[in-house]
Design a protein that fits this description.
Layout lengths: L3 H27 L10 H23 L5 H9 L8 H22 L1 H6 L4 H6 L10 H22 L2 H5 L7 H15 L9 H13 L15 H20 L1
Helix pairs in contact: 1-2, 1-4, 2-9, 3-4, 3-7, 3-11, 4-10, 7-9, 7-11
């Protein structure tokens, strides 16, 4: 029997790794003097997919590797996760996201210094901002993308898929899901789909001594929190209706 504390430790580590590698690929493709600068959207979506895979490989055997408060909420509503463990998971995920973002800054510190003339790009290494600032449309984008994420995770745990060796949070299928969502539905808002991936790194951006940074986009920050939570809840309700 794995204790809640152990599960939360692995949620923290898994989310830290997810953000370190995910925000890391954003930094690699964006910051000045990076060898990967300008690599583009395909590299970023692949990088985020593999970042999720690495987090799942670490946390999966111990916590189920939610790595996302929206996933935790959706699984709880769908009856796949105990409500009594939700708060601990969410706290661990949010702390892991913050720690991962701080490590990205430490790793790319010289490149952040060289990118002082690109405050938008520096912010994008931490959190999402919309391509077109229309908060109702942006909220819709985050709801739909996260609905697809959580519904697909729930579907991967159904008997037919589980029998094919694809458990509810198996690393490879979830990697493919993240890549598909990023490439197809990510271009409007940056596909946060995860408050621990967006709000916690946004707070890190706010607190870190980054020369030349802009504000942390707090007027938009509620969208990649509310959208994923609503999308996850809708996915769980849809799953309950169908099954």
């Amino acid at each position: 029997m794995i204790s809640l504390f152990t599960k939360c430790v692995f949620e923290f580590i898994g989310t830290l790794v997810l953000v370190l590698l995910g925000d890391g690929v954003c930094a690699a493709c964006t910051l000045e003097k990076s060898k990967a600068k300008g690599a583009g959207w395909v590299v970023i979506t692949l990088g985020w997919g593999f970042a999720v895979m690495c987090g799942v490989l670490i946390a999966g055997p111990y916590s189920g590797a939610h790595l996302n408060p929206a996933v935790t909420l959706g699984l709880a509503i769908a009856g796949k996760f105990a409500w009594g463990e939700v708060l601990g998971y969410v706290i661990a995920q949010m702390l892991g996201g913050f720690a991962g973002a701080v490590l990205v800054y430490a790793f790319y510190r010289d490149h952040f210094a060289a990118s002082a003339g690109n405050p938008e790009g520096m912010l994008g290494c931490f959190c999402t901002m919309p391509a077109i600032d229309n908060k109702s449309s942006n909220l819709f984008s985050e709801i739909v993308a996260t609905l697809m994420l959580v519904f697909l995770i729930l579907m991967l745990g159904t008997d037919g898929n589980a029998n094919a060796g694809m458990g509810s949070l198996g690393a490879f299928p979830v990697t493919c899901v993240i890549m598909s969502l990023g490439m197809s539905l990510g271009a409007t808002t940056g596909y946060a789909m995860n408050p621990a991936r967006d709000l916690s790194p946004r707070l890190a951006h706010c607190l870190l001594p980054i020369a030349g940074k802009r504000d942390s986009g707090w007027s938009y920050s509620w969208v990649p929190v509310l959208g994923p939570l609503v999308g996850a809840a809708l996915a769980a309700v849809l799953f309950l209706i169908l099954f």
